Every structure is written in C-alpha cells, then in structure tokens.
Amino acid sequence: MVRRPVAWVVAVVLFAEAVGVAGLNWMLGTMVDQQHMSLAGLDPDAMATSSKAAGVVFGLYFAVCGLVALLVALRGRRPAGFGRVLLISAAVVHGLLGAFAWGLVGATAFLFMMVVLGLIVLLLMTYDRAEAGPAGPVPGDGPQDGDDPARDVPAGPGGPAGHGPAEGGTGPADGGRHAPLTPPAEPSAS
To answer: Beta strands 159-160 and 155-156: pairing type?
Structure first.
C-alpha cells in the first residue's frame, strides 16, 4: 500500500521545510538588523523583527502540518477535521509559493514546490479513496446472471423472508421474489 510511505515522506518534507523557512527568515532578519537596511523608509528594526516573527510563524505552521502527516502515517487513518484543513491549506500555500518561486527564484524552486504540492494532494486523495471502498460491485459477490437469490429462502407470509409485506398485507404479483432495488420517488408538492 502506498498510503503510509507517502504520509511519512510528506511529514519529513514538511518538517524540513519548517526548519528551512524559519532559518531563512531568521537569517534575513539578522542581516537586515546588522546592516541597518531600509526599504522605502521603513524602520530597520521593524523589518528585522517582522522577518524573524514571520519565520517563527511559518516554521510553526509547517511543523504542525508535518505533525498531522506524521499522525496519519502512524495511525494509518485519514486526517480529519482541523488536521485535514491544515493539509489542504498547506497544499494551497505550496501552489502559491510555487507560482511566486517561478518568477523570483527559478524553475528548480517551482518544481520543488509542485512536488510537495503533489505529495500532499496524493496523501489526501489516497486516504479518501481507501476509506470510500470500491466504487462498483465486486466480481463474484452477489447473484450471477440467471440466479435468483430468493429461490433458496424459505417462504413466509407474503413471500420470501425480507421481501414480503408486513404481517397481514399483500405482496407483489410475483410473490415478493423480485423486490425493487430502490424505493419509488416521493410525490412532489408542486
């Protein structure tokens, strides 16, 4: 099964990104502070502090997303609730970062962001597909052409067990052997 290895890879990549993003922003904030840089007249201290704060916030965000992926890998169950929302938001963030990276950094950073985006989406989709079960009937499961499942069922009042009406009612014309698969539609109120 591919699900758990994908979850492990996503967890490791998100933890590495958390450390990388936090370290990069912290380094940029330190450089701005040491060189007293200013952008459009902004205070260098405010720029350094905001860069370091952004590094801590984004580092924690990616670390929590990595923790969600790690829990998915350990438990073998799909992410639910807030964890699922975090992973979806991480996929969106990686899509946006990939778009910015293409213009600012180059194709390599874009490809990295797209690979991480693909891994997160794969993690979300494989667990959804596995939880939903098979989409159609399973071969060999159920009656074959020409088989009548009600043939071997002992008849009770109104037809075979489970197919006839309630006690005292009348069944279909064929004795209840071919019950409808879906109930009839409700009449509309209009």
So the answer is: antiparallel
* Residue 176: both structure tokens together: 């209840």
Under DSSP, the state recorded for 156 is: E
How far apart, in whole angstroms, are the C-alpha atoms of residue 3 and residue 72? Answer: 9
Q: Give alpha helix (H) positions in the chain.
A: 3-35, 44-75, 82-104, 107-132
Distance in angstroms (rounded) separating the CA atoms of residues 161 and 155: 6
Q: For residue range 42-70, list pLDDT tens digits in order.
A: 787 888 888 899 999 999 999 999 999 99
Q: Return the residue matching tokens 């990549």.
A: 13
Rg (CA), the chain: 29
CA distance 38 to 45: 9
Position 145 scores a pLDDT of 53
Q: Which residues of the chain have pLDDT under 50?
A: 162-164, 166-169
Q: Identify which of 55, 56, 35, 38 has the alpha carbon closest to the alpha carbon of residue 47.
A: 38
Instruction: With CA atoms as reference, report the closest residue to 66 among 120, 26, 25.
Output: 120
Is the pTM for the entire model greater than 0.85?
Answer: no
Give the bridge partners for 160, in sequence order.
155
Give the number of residues written for the chain.
190
What secondary structure letter does DSSP report for 155?
A: E
